[in-house]
Amino acid sequence: MDKAAKVRIPTMVVHGDSDGFVPTASGKALFESFPEGIGTQWVAVPTASHNNVLVTDFPIYVTMAEWFLKNLTPASGD
Question: Against a cut of 0.85, is the pTM above it?
Fold first, then answer.
């Protein structure tokens, strides 16, 4: 968690509600360790486990795309 507090870039944490490997409380604790104001988002994916958060009926790609457009900017010169 100490390293998370030093992050200075936008960060999204995607966590499956049925993750049996990393408890939701641990994912939330990591998320809450990021500094305020850097552009963070917590996304809980219903019924997803640890290995399938990107392969569910939940519209994760829409959520991710909207967040990317809002929080990420092209590198200078692009």
Answer: no
